[in-house]
């Protein structure tokens, strides 16, 4: 969908995109200057340790304790080529062929693919808007089998923006502990929460689980650094050692210039993300209100990240401009063809019948895009 959006843009069309999963803000200037200085440092013109620059690993450990309360040694940190690389490394180390991994759905599209590439078997655990897109212990237990080895846990969530309460996280963490499972918890959106919602780290709330928990994070969302490709994995020493050995043969060290930029980011304050969060919060409320005014669309208010996840089930099967889309994927194709609006259909996240709509775009574009969808959907006939 993003490729179709860019192709139409290149052809001169006025297209509005809700598909991209990245902040629309530039990387803060001090971080850019740190990278510029790193380019001129001869020490960074050569190979550096696979696990990351020692100063960056120490800064990540300090940042983790500051932001989530999780105390780790720098040796428990592996710097990776973005958060996606950390996810892939985690499953490659934890999964043997045939191991089952519970993946609450809707899920970020990479999780099941990374699990499968590692030889594991992804087991989706469905949720819907009536649950606030949050999985329960009962749901997880019903999906568990004797082959279950790992649980994927994400809060705030991509694509739904769901945020779990401390009580819910504790219950899930203790359940995983009692069942002897590993947990891979993705905290990339930790600072993007709104209203009364709060981010909580599972190994902090359930410290007994820390020895079977892998935390994935990165600079991409917090510091508007998606293109810099710096993430990290935090875990028990044996997991980090194995993942480091694996990475040494895959990629060696992450770009030293990008690591220097990340060091500046995680060592600094959170003023930049506070400004972004205020803008996202405003857009969040706007997009939800506008979507809920469209007949056939229902959108739960997200509490985190920068995505709305509206249900479009009320539009499926209805006649719109000579077509009867039966799936959200077909409806998304109609949206870009007829309204020049790009959204991501729920099929990509294991949740047919929904759209993921990023509100990481300008206020005027956001309003115009939803208005275009409203005008198109107003033509729907039985």
Structural class comes to alpha/beta
Strand order of the largest sheet: 2-8-7-6-5-3-4
What is the arithmetic mean of pLDDT? Answer: 97
CATH superfamily descriptor of the largest domain: Type I PLP-dependent aspartate aminotransferase-like (Major domain)
CATH topology of the largest domain: Aspartate Aminotransferase, domain 2
Total helices: the number is 13
User: Briefly, what CATH class of the largest domain?
Assistant: Alpha Beta
Low-confidence stretches: none
Helix content: 40-55%
Major sheet description: 7 strands, mixed
Assembly annotation: single chain
Distance between the amino and carboxyl termini: 27 Å
CATH architecture name of the largest domain: 3-Layer(aba) Sandwich
Would you mind describing this structure in some detail?
With 382 residues, this protein is of the alpha/beta class. Helices cover 40% and strands 13% of the residues. It is built from 13 helices and twelve strands. α7 (166-178) links the parallel β5 and β6 (182-186). α4 (82-94) crosses α5 and α4 (82-94) packs across α9 (237-250). The radius of gyration is 21 Å and the shape is globular. The protein starts with a helix and ends in a 5-residue tail after the last helix.
């Amino acid at each position: 969908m993003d490729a179709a959006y860019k192709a139409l843009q290149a052809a001169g069309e006025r297209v509005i995109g809700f598909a991209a999963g990245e902040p629309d803000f530039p990387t803060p200037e001090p971080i850019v200057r740190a990278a510029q200085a790193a380019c001129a440092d001869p020490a960074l013109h050569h190979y550096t340790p696979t696990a990351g620059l020692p100063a960056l690993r120490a800064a990540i450990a300090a940042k983790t304790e500051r932001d989530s309360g999780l105390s780790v040694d720098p040796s428990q940190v592996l710097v990776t080529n973005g958060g996606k690389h950390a996810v892939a490394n985690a499953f490659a180390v934890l999964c043997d062929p045939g191991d089952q991994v519970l993946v609450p759905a809707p899920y970020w599209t990479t999780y099941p693919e990374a699990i499968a590439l590692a030889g594991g078997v992804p087991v989706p655990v469905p949720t819907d808007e009536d649950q606030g897109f949050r999985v329960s212990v009962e749901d997880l237990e019903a999906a568990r089998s004797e082959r279950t080895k790992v649980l994927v846990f994400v809060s705030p969530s991509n694509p739904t923006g769901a945020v779990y309460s401390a009580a819910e996280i504790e219950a899930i963490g203790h359940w995983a502990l009692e069942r002897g499972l590993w947990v891979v918890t993705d905290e990339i959106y930790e600072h993007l929460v709104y209203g009364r919602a709060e981010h909580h780290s599972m190994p902090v709330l359930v410290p007994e689980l820390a020895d079977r928990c892998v935390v994935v994070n990165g600079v991409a969302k917090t510091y508007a650094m998606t293109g810099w490709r710096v993430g990290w994995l935090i875990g028990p020493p044996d997991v980090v050692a194995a993942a480091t050995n694996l990475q040494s043969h895959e990629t060696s060290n992450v770009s030293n210039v990008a690591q220097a930029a990340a060091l500046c980011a995680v060592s600094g304050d959170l003023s930049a993300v506070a400004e972004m969060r205020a803008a996202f919060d405003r857009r969040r409320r706007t997009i939800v209100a506008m979507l809920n005014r469209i007949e056939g669309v229902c959108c739960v208010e997200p509490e985190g990240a920068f995505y709305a996840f509206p249900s479009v089930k009320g539009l499926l099967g209805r006649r719109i401009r000579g077509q009867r889309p039966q799936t959200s994927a077909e409806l998304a194709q109609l949206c870009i063809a007829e309204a020049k609006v790009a959204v991501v259909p729920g099929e990509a996240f294991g949740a047919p019948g929904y759209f993921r709509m990023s509100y990481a775009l300008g206020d005027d574009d956001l309003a115009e895009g939803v208005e275009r969808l409203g005008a198109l959907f107003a033509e729907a006939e039985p």
